[in-house]
Amino acid sequence: MIEKIAELIINHPTVALTGAGVSTESGIPDFRSKNGLYSKYGKEIFDLDYFYKNPEKFYKFAKETFLPMYSASPNLTHKLLSILEEKGFLLGVITQNIDNLHSKAGTKKVVELHGNATKFYCTKCGIKYSINEVMKSYYCECGGLIRPNIIFFGENLPANAWEMALSLLEKAEIMLVIASSLSVYPAAYLPILFKRKYGKLIIVNNDDTKLDDLADFKINVQASIFSHNLLNFLKIKGVFQN
User: Fold this and answer.
1) CB 233 within 8 A of CB 3
2) Residue 228 designated active-site
3) What integer best gives the mean pLDDT of the chain?
4) Marked catalytic residue, from 12, 78, 102, 114
5) Comparing C-alpha atoms, which of 31, 51, 60, 35 is closest to residue 149?
6) Which of 95, 118, 211, 213 is deepest in the core (most CB within 10 A)?
C-alpha cells in the first residue's frame, strides 16, 4: 500500500492534516489518552471562561507543559512533510497542534487551526509578549490579561486559518491525514469537505478514526513508522536522495 500512496503523493497535489499523535512522538502529551493532559489537569483547563476566572491556575499549567514543549524537537513525520513541501509534492500542512513543530521542521505553509502556544498577547491592548515575559507576569502594563494565541473551548476557529485550510483543499487532489482521531470539530469536517470534491483521502492513525469509512486508504500504524516507510520508498525510487 505504501507504494500506491507514494505514487499518489508525488503525482498529485497533496495537502496534509496532522493531529496530536504526530507531536506525542516528540514527547508532547496528547489530550484524551490515559496519560493525556485532560486526565491530569481536567478538560476545563482549555475552557475560555475557566481561563478568565482562573488565570493563575492556567499559567501554572502552562509553566509545567508549555515550557517543555518549547524544547521539543521535530520528529521524522514533521521532517518528512517539510521535505515533501520543499520538493513541491505537498501544498502545505493543516495542523490541529499548537506546538510550532511543523514550522521548526522547516515547513513554510502551515495552517494552525488551533493557534500557536509559543505566542501571547494582551486581551485588552493587543501587545504581543514572549513566554519569558508572561512567566514573570500574566498581566500587561495596561492592566489587561495576557493570553496564549490558542483556541480555547468556547471560541471559534480564526476565520483566516479556516479560509486558508479551505483554499488548500480546493487546490489538492490528495489529502493525507496523519495521527488525528478526527473527533474534534470543525477540523474533522475538512476530510468530509474534501471527499465531496472526489479527492483521494488517506488516513494514517494507530487507532480507528471517526471517518475511516470515507478513506480510500487507511493505515493503522504509528506516524513515525508510516513516515519511515514512505521516506525509504521515495529514496529507493530516487525521488529523494540519501
Assistant:
1) yes
2) no
3) 93
4) 114
5) 51
6) 95
- Residue 224: per-residue pLDDT: 96
Nine cell digits for residue 30 = 496528547
Task: Find where cell 471527499 sits.
Answer: 195
Helices and strands (H, E) in the chain, number of each type: 11, 9
* Predicted confidence (pLDDT) per residue in 112-145, tens digit: 999 999 999 999 999 999 988 998 999 999 999 9
Contact 93, 18 (CB under 8 A): yes
- CA 46/CA 49 separation, integer angstroms: 9
Is the torsion defined by CA of 42, 48, 50, 97 positive or negative? positive
Name the pTM for this structure: 0.93
Q: What is the mean pLDDT of residues 67-85?
A: 95
CA distances from 163 to 111, 112, 114, 159, 214 (A): 10, 11, 13, 6, 23
Helix (H, G, I), strand (E, B) or coil at 215: coil
- Ordered domains of the chain (ranges, CATH): 1-28+74-114+157-242 (3.40.50.1220), 29-71+116-150 (3.30.1600.10)
Q: Residue 5: which of 182, 238, 235, 234 has the closest Cα?
A: 234
Q: Which DSSP category does 211 fall into?
A: T
Give exposure, 117-141, as e/b (b: 16+ Cβ within 10 Å).
Answer: bbbbbbeeeeeebebeebeeebebe
**DSSP assignment letter at 140:** -
pLDDT over 90, % of the chain: 81
List the one residue out of 31, 144, 16, 154 whose CA is nearest residue 91. Answer: 16
